[in-house]
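BUG: 3D viewer hangs when loading the predicted structure for this chain

Environment: internal workstation, default settings.
Expected: structure renders.
Actual: progress bar stalls at 90%.

Input used:
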Amino acid sequence: MSNNPDDGRTILPDFALDKVNDAIYLVGKDARLAYINNKACEMLGYKYQQLIRLSYADIDGELLDPDVTALWWKLSMRPEGIRFTSQHRMHNGEMIPVEVSSSTYEHQGQTLVLNVVRDVRELKQRTERYLQQEQQFRSLVENSPDLIARFDIQMRCQYANPLVLELIGCSEEQAQGWCLTDTIPFDDVGMRLFRLVSNTLASGEKSEAELEARFGDRTMVLHVRCVPEYDLRGEVVSILAVGQDITRLREVENEVRAAHQQMRLLASNQQQQTEDERKHIAREIHDELGQHLTSLRAGLSVMGMQAKSPARVTQQVDYLMTLIDSTIQVVRDVSTRLRPNMLNMGLVPALEWLRDEFVKHSRCACMLIVPEGKPIALSDQAVTAVFRVVQESLTNVSRHANASKVSIIVQTSRESVVIQIRDNGQGFKIQSVRQDAFGLLGIKERVDMLNGFASITSQPGEGTLLEITLPLSAK
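Structure tokens produced before the viewer hung:
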């Protein structure tokens, strides 16, 4: 405070209040202002000389009433003083909300009232905004299809929307102050929710999980997300828990999963029927038609030996025998393509035959490595699936890989058998494979039907590795 007598201020030794953020008025019993600080001038928009000439009643209009003034003075004289809210008039006539703390002050034998006045316009605006946001929050959550509850840092319920109250069967008054820890010893869902809220409270970050809760006769699957709420100082003051009912979603997922499994079983059954039909047709062609053609060839041979006109008959017989030999070979080829007889002898003989056929019709070298000892115990369906997968893989190598070497490695453990087909070809980008590439899709589907796993690894210029794993108990 200035001690310059020319500025008209009352000199109050050792009374440095110009640094205070609140407005300060020293008021006499006649309501005249004995002292004002700079903050008071700034708050009301006056110059010092203008404001010091006014009475306190000019600022606070309620003191124009003598009875109000007398009561204010009396209460201010108490040791604890008085605190109240009022409105002060600015220089431009605008009324602003203020919070006033009045208490007695003795100076040089004179009794004064010390008024500490705080401008609460910003606080009032913040409060109004908070109330407006709270109203918007309530309007939103009370009409939300989700379960919404708010807990303080002591895990006490501060709010629960109508859907929560309906499900747990209690009123809003009963829910207020209900402590989350009360359910921990008795309810596994309560324990999991408590952990979720605790994690959010401890980390200051959102947490989420799925909870299965039972409300009366109704079982619900809830996706619960907990988010922290902060005060103006950045400290967590509450946790908002939002539970979304995903019961129907999980039911649909289970239905789709069951339908997919059913389709897979149907496809597996259809594939098995196809293989059985192929086996039957191959056997019929090989055994019946092949046998008839063989008998026919033998008969023609006998006719040729018994003919009296050897020249012409022999020529015709030779032609028919050549035609029959070609037919027999066609029958064998068709039978083999439908189902090689080696499949009936087990996995290793079938792969050996497949390797030999690949080497015969391709310029690529092929090496087969199989475990020595007892045969691999796979079902006929599994052997057929492995054979078809390796056959498809070798076909892809022959058509696309431009490889010079291929290796087929079979490894077994107590639980599974692993088959690797590796080539040194040009490779490809897995991401660039078309979605309708049924060769690769068919490989994975065959293995999936036997509860196995298939993986393909490839990079341009680094060749390709196909690895399939089947449980030895695959049936």
